[in-house]
Each structure stands twice: as C-alpha cells, then as structure tokens.
Design a protein that fits this description.
230 residues, alpha/beta, Rossmann fold, 8 strands, oxidoreductase, Sc_DH/Rdtase_CS
C-alpha cells in the first residue's frame, strides 16, 4: 500500500491532495502547524503529526512517524508555505517566509530521501516562474524552490514542482473577490491535487508543472543553458 506524506495538509491544496490519495487507497500522513490537520486525518483514516517545517527535527520526526505507523514512505508532497510579505520590507516576515517556504523545502527533501521516499513533489507557484510584484519575497522563495527541484539529481527518486496560479485556498481568501472582479481565474484545490497525482504517476523528474483554472497541467519550458564547472 502506498504511503503518502503531505505537509501543510490541514487545508487548501494539501488537504485536497491528502483526500485524493486516501480516496485511491493510500495511507496518508498530514503534517501541519494547524491543529485542523487532525480533523482531515480523522476524515480520511490517516495520521496527523504536528509539524513546523522550518525545523529540521520536525521534518525528521514526521518522516519517522510515517514509517513507524505504516511501515514505509513512498510519496512526499512538500506543500507547506506562507506568503503575505507584501512590498514593504519587514525583517521578521522575510525570515519567516524563507524559513517556511525555502528551508522547509530543503529540510523536507532531506528527510524524505533519508526516509526512503521514491517521489517528491514540491508546491512552488506561478510566482516561482514569473515576477510577482505584489509580494517579491514570496516570489523569491518560490523561484528558489524551482532551482532546487531542477538541480537535485537524486538516485531512484523523482523530484518535481507544481506551480499553481490563484487557488481557492485560505491564502487568497482575503482578495478572492477582487481577483474574480478583474476577470482572473481562481482554480480549485482539487485541480492541483489531480496535477500532483499525475506528476507522481508520470515518473519524470526535475520538472515544473503549471496549473491554472480550467487548463490541463503543463510542463514549464525553461531556456537551456549549459553551466560548466571551472
């Protein structure tokens, strides 16, 4: 039986991914600082482990908990992330965004590989492949995630990124109506969950997948540049 770990699984994209894999017979572990993750886990017959992804030991502990509870670990979706840094520089906000989004990804990849995962999907964003002038620090963190995903060569492990546009989650709840008023599409978390499932099943690695409302997931095409070591 497939064992899946989802960080940031208490709501939004993470909860949708957890429900989708559980619905297909997987054992699912939800990691989140939000205690509502326990309710999602109870709903799907999974396991909730309180986790701050910005802490190395929390990433190691949730992987260990998954292996202890279900005997192994197959798929890890590193979805936990925060934004709302805005355009005014705030040192505390900057450090927290980078700690959760970038450190959490790095620590999560490390723990997942050590725990035997065979497929890792990281949630980046369209803001990770194009400018996001409304939140430069968030955009920088998501660009960095793309760099990690495209650069890591991990034997026997696939690693990819999913890059959603605006998704109907708590992160956009405060300005969702304005997005719709301006004619911007807002996708459902289920669309991203379907993309994550497709990415894992596809078996490719080092790719970034764009997900936007009403469109099929698409691999992002990056310029090819050869880097030589000197």
């Amino acid at each position: 039986m497939t064992v899946v770990l989802v960080t940031g699984g208490a709501s939004g994209i993470g909860a949708a991914v957890a429900r989708r894999f559980a619905g297909n017979g997987a054992q699912v572990v939800i990691a989140d600082v939000n205690p509502l993750g326990a309710e999602v886990a109870a709903e799907i017959g999974g396991l909730f482990v309180p986790t701050d992804v910005s802490a190395v030991e929390d990433n190691d502990n949730v992987v260990a908990a998954a292996r202890e509870a279900f005997g192994g670990l197959d798929v890890v979706h590193l979805n936990a992330g925060i934004g709302a840094g805005g355009t005014d520089f705030d040192l505390d906000a900057y450090r927290r965004i980078m700690a959760v989004n970038l450190d959490g990804t790095m620590f999560g990849i490390r723990a997942a590989v050590r725990g035997g995962a065979r497929a890792i999907v990281v949630t980046s964003s369209l803001a990770g492949i194009s400018p996001a002038t409304f939140d430069p620090v968030y955009s920088a963190s998501k660009h960095a995630i793309i760099g990690l995903v495209r650069s890591f060569q991990i034997p026997d492990v696939t690693i990819n990124a999913v890059c959603p546009g605006f998704i109907d989650t708590p992160m956009v709840a405060g300005f969702r109506d304005r997005l719709l008023e301006h004619g911007l599409a807002v996708a459902s978390p289920d669309e991203v969950a379907a993309a994550v499932e497709q990415i894992v099943a596809g078996g490719e690695s080092n790719q970034a997948w764009e997900v936007q409302a009403g469109r099929p997931p698409a691999v992002v095409q990056f310029p090819t540049v050869e880097l030589s070591q000197r």
